[in-house]
């Protein structure tokens, strides 16, 4: 899988290492989910990741630790 689309699933929290088994993902699109929280290291070890799209989400705080482990 190089493109992952998670849309309209009512997700509120993305946990640390949630995507860890998808190390080849290049693009993640998550929209219309009600996401409020991205835990630290949510995208860790996704070395091929080029873009993350989070349109219309409710995230209020972004820290560099959320993206820890990305190149």
Give the topology, please.
Layout: E1 3-7, E2 13-14, E3 27-31, E4 37-38, E5 51-53
Parallel strand pairs: 1-3, 2-4, 3-5
Shape verdict: globular
Please tally the helical runs, counting DSSP H or I stretches of 4 or more residues: 0
Q: How much is the average pLDDT?
A: 94
User: Which structural class matches the secondary elements?
Assistant: mainly beta
* Order of strands across the main sheet: 1-3-5
Q: What would you report as the Rg, rounded to the nearest angstrom? A: 11 Å
- How far the N terminus sits from the C terminus, by CA atoms, comes to 19 Å
Number of strands: 5
Helix content: under 10%
Strand content: 15-25%
The biggest sheet amounts to:
3 strands, parallel
Low-confidence stretches: none
Query: Strand-and-helix sequence, N→C?
Result: EEEEE
Question: How does this structure look, described?
Answer:
There is one protein chain. By secondary structure, the chain is mostly beta strands. The chain is built from no helices and 5 strands. The strands form 2 sheets. Strands 1-3-5 form a 3-stranded parallel sheet, with no helix packed on it. A two-stranded parallel ribbon has the order 2-4. The two termini are 19 Å apart. The mean pLDDT is 94.
What keyword list fits this structure?
globular, two-stranded parallel ribbon, three-stranded parallel sheet, mainly beta, 5 strands, 71 residues
Task: Describe the structure concisely for a colleague.
The protein is mainly beta. Helices cover 0% and strands 24% of the residues.
């Amino acid at each position: 899988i190089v493109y992952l689309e998670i849309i309209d699933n009512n997700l509120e929290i993305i946990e640390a290492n949630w995507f860890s088994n998808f190390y080849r993902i290049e693009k993640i699109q998550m929209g219309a989910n009600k996401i409020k929280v991205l835990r630290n290291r949510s995208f860790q070890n996704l070395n091929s990741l080029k873009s993350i799209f989070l349109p219309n989400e409710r995230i209020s705080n972004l820290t560099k630790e959320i993206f820890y482990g990305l190149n």
